[in-house]
Amino acid sequence: MISIVFIFFIRGLYLWKGYSRLRHEPPLSRSGLHTLGYEHLLIGSSLRKHRNTYAKISKKAIEHNLKNEQARLGADCELFAVVKANGYGHGAVEIAKVARDAGVTGFCVALLDEALELRQAGITEPILILGIVDVANIPIIAAEKLSVTVGSLEWIKEAKLKTKNHNNRLRIHLALDTGMGRIGFRTVLELTEAENTVTASKLFEFEGVFTHFATADEADETRFNKQLEKFNELINSLNNKPRFIHVANSATALWHLKIPTNIVRYGIAMYGLNPSGNALKSPVSLEPAMELISELIQVKKIQPGDTISYGATYEATGCEWVGTIPIGYADGWRRSLQGQTVLVDGQRCEIIGRVCMDQCMIRLPKEYSVGTNVVLVGKSGTDQVTMEELAEHLDTINYEIICGITLRVPRIYV
Prior knowledge:
This protein has 414 residues and is of the alpha/beta class. The protein has 13 helices and 20 strands. α6 (112-120) links the parallel β3 and β4 (127-129). Residues 1-47 have low confidence and may be disordered. One of its GO terms (biological process) is D-alanine biosynthetic process.
């Protein structure tokens, strides 16, 4: 029996060492990427180090967008970079490092695991978790000096039971539901009781209070003003104002500059995308940070009547050149992108037939050689495909497009 246990122990130790080695193994350079100078392939296991489809992330674009916002900040306002959802699909750790070097003073995430990922990567600046965390994780949160969002009195009472046996005070931001309908305190009575409970305890640090506007990216400001009025009512009921009182996401920061806030939670605009889509013009220059690039892996000439992809939804009416691209809906390149165009040699080429799990096909204006670059998002020649264009095709928002690019697509930082 002892020998069997010992064998399983040795086997487990071997597997753990192998896992640790793989985790710390430097990324391999694909020859094509090396030629282009994109050796820095940060996201992806060994299975994702050899792909000819990748997202190219511009550090300079991130810096540009942050500098523009910093120039608009008041003297007492701090800029927090929002890097939840893997940095909106751009890579949380790498973007956090770029943002830190650009001068942001803190970060926002949605989940505890996202905050811990930053801490493990050496990010020591303040981190605010915008989502509600399980009180069972309070010892970890306090030890890592993370700030948490609180939206109910029940959470505070339960948290008191979890914070008795550690030294660090729990940093709390009270969320106010002023009209978003998501999380937070809704009435003066609720907020007063929460404030009294938090400030009466030495276990907590009442660090902040905030709200989130539902329509800051719309031209009609009726609902925005209603939320602002509710927020002011709740804030004025506080006996002890915390250090941070903040309301500004990207949209509020861009189009409601005069609203008092001492933290700007800069998310989508940091990545160079307009929070409103095309509804409102951005008052500052936004430079998109992500391009999505692939290449032709097969080119063929088809005849009239030939069909393409599942369901034979595309039938050639004449002789046509067709190229295959190694990207599909498993990469976040949605199945319903049939009919959307991509760029080959600066020319628009339509996606024909249904997008498959791993590949899709495009109609070419002429024969191109295998290996020819295909720009799915970004510039080629004098033309450009934008995230907003994809969002309009899919009847969604640019946020969903960038967050939907899956992890099997490598991110290359330039």
